[in-house]
């Protein structure tokens, strides 16, 4: 068996993106959960509010607003509820073998996302910072008896972004910020033929189409500006460049020995932009809003390269630009307690005609709440909770192999919701 219309590599790597949106619960496979303070207001106004040192991730220009050395450590727990419901029709050697169930709940395991930020003012105008966090990631795991494992099975991508930054207060109202980003990425993907293919094909049941492990890194940059329009209103804008990460590693296959070799995949990660405003309505109430832009149009296709095989076209993705809109409020209940709430609408970059079982992305709505508790002058704690409500979407996808004489089609729906809980400690020295 040497040729597939949809090659083992194609199946494995398109499946690798399954549930990324549901794991992180943001557009595509983006992660926006950097701080409990931001999550508490659905990240509304993140680029214009200097709550803590996590401003390195949202807008580095805001570092000049922190007048003391500040350390922020956060942990965010994401509990997804992702389900796939449908059937797979199997056509074997021209004979329709009928439909079989291809449904599963709890496709995506729970995950904890850590982050750490530190800002150090050098003088009244210059501040330095360094952070480690992530903007992209995924994790999905189908059961061994999932009826469409030839289309989607197991996937994991982990990224860590190390981000040293500098900010300069240009004058009394404007600050500028700049950062360098070093992204480290690792990935593990696998797909297999389902445990029930069709009569006469039992020898292939459970066979690995392809397993792929790889690591890579790339550099990028980010910049921001913060403008104190008047004593009660701050506007912030920031930009974060994209990455072109070459993942290098090993490929394995039970069905095609030629794929047991070294391989690589270039993964294009999008550029990000944010526009935020925060307005202090009165002594107690602050209102905020943001528009976030993610240029997923760079994610046009996946293409791999395997030693001894060469370039392998994996899949046309044809993703589009996506926006996220959020509004939030912060209320100072008393000198030691601050309350937050927020609402956001997150667009999917995947058009209906390009949606697949491997990437069943959908629009989603965030409902968030949170609080800040001051312990003393040096320490305070943030907590937050968010519920992510994803749309139920129709999904149609197929796996085709002329060599095996198979043409399998999945038809069904996918839905992904999530509970998010975040805790954060802030320390000022």
Task: Note the topology.
Blueprint (H helix, E strand, L loop, with lengths): L7 H8 L4 H5 L11 H5 L14 H4 L11 E23 L2 E7 L9 E11 L4 E8 L3 E5 L12 E9 L2 E5 L4 E19 L15 E23 L2 E8 L2 E10 L8 E9 L2 E9 L4 E10 L6 E6 L3 E7 L5 E13 L2 E10 L17 E11 L4 E12 L2 E9 L4 E23 L1
Key descriptive features of the protein:
single chain; 429 residues; mainly beta; Porin; 22-stranded antiparallel β-sheet; 4 helices; elongated; disordered N terminus
- What is the CATH class designation? Mainly Beta
Main beta sheet: strand number and arrangement? 22 strands, antiparallel
- Overall mean pLDDT score? 83
CATH homologous superfamily, by name? Outer membrane protein transport protein (OMPP1/FadL/TodX)
- Helix vs. strand class: mainly beta
Task: Count every helix, treating DSSP H or I runs of 4 or more residues as helices.
Answer: 4
Based on Cα principal axes, name the global outline: elongated
Uncertain stretches of 5 or more adjacent residues: 1-25
Give the proportion of residues in helices: under 10%
* Share of residues in strands: over 45%
- Gyration radius (Cα, Å) is 23 Å
Termini distance? Answer: 65 Å
* CATH-defined topology: Porin
CATH architecture call: Beta Barrel
Structure explained in plain terms:
The structure is a single chain. The protein has 429 residues and is mainly beta. The chain has one domain (8-280, 346-361, 386-428): Outer membrane protein transport protein (OMPP1/FadL/TodX) (Porin, Beta Barrel), CATH 2.40.160. It is 5% helix and 58% strand. The chain is built from 4 helices and 22 strands. The chain has a 22-stranded antiparallel β-sheet that branches. Strand 1 and strand 2 form a beta hairpin.
């Amino acid at each position: 068996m040497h040729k597939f219309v949809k090659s083992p590599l194609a199946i494995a790597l398109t499946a690798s993106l399954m549930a990324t949106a549901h794991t992180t619960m943001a557009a595509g496979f983006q992660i926006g959960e950097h701080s409990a303070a931001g999550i508490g207001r659905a990240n509304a106004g993140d680029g214009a509010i200097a709550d803590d040192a996590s401003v390195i991730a949202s807008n580095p220009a805001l570092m000049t607003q922190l007048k003391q050395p500040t350390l922020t450590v956060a942990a965010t727990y994401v509990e997804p509820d992702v389900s796939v419901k449908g059937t797979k029709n199997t056509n074997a050697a021209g004979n329709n073998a009928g439909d079989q169930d291809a449904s599963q709940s709890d496709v995506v395991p729970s995950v904890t996302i850590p982050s750490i930020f530190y800002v150090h003012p050098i003088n009244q105008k210059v501040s330095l910072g360094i952070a480690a966090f992530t903007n992209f990631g995924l994790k999905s795991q189908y059961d061994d008896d999932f009826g469409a494992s030839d289309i989607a099975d197991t996937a994991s991508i982990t990224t860590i972004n190390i981000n040293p930054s500098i900010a300069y207060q240009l004058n009394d109202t404007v600050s500028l910020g700049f950062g360098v980003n070093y992204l480290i990425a690792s990935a593990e993907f696998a797909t297999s033929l389902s445990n029930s293919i069709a009569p006469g094909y039992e020898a292939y049941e459970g066979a690995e189409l392809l397993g792929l492990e790889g690591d890579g890194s790339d550099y990028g940059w980010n910049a921001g500006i913060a403008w104190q329009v008047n004593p009660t209103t701050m506007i912030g804008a920031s930009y974060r460049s994209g990455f072109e990460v070459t993942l290098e590693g090993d490929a394995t296959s039970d069905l095609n020995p030629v794929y047991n070799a070294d391989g690589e995949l270039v993964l294009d990660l999008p550029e990000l932009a944010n526009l935020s405003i925060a307005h202090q309505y009165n002594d107690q109430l602050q209102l905020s809003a943001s528009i976030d832009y993610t240029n997923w149009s760079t994610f046009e296709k996946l293409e791999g390269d395997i030693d001894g095989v060469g370039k392998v076209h994996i899949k046309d993705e044809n993703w589009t630009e996506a926006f996220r809109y959020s509004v939030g409020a912060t209320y100072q209940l008393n000198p030691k307690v601050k309350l937050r709430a927020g609402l956001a609408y997150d667009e999917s970059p995947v058009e209906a005609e390009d949606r697949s079982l491997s990437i069943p992305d959908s629009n989603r709505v965030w409902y968030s709440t949170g609080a800040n508790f001051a312990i003393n002058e040096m320490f305070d704690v943030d907590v937050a909770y968010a519920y992510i409500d994803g749309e139920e979407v129709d999904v149609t996808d197929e796996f085709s192999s002329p060599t095996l004489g198979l043409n399998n089609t999945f038809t069904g729906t996918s839905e992904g919701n999530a509970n998010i809980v975040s805790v954060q400690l802030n320390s000022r020295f």
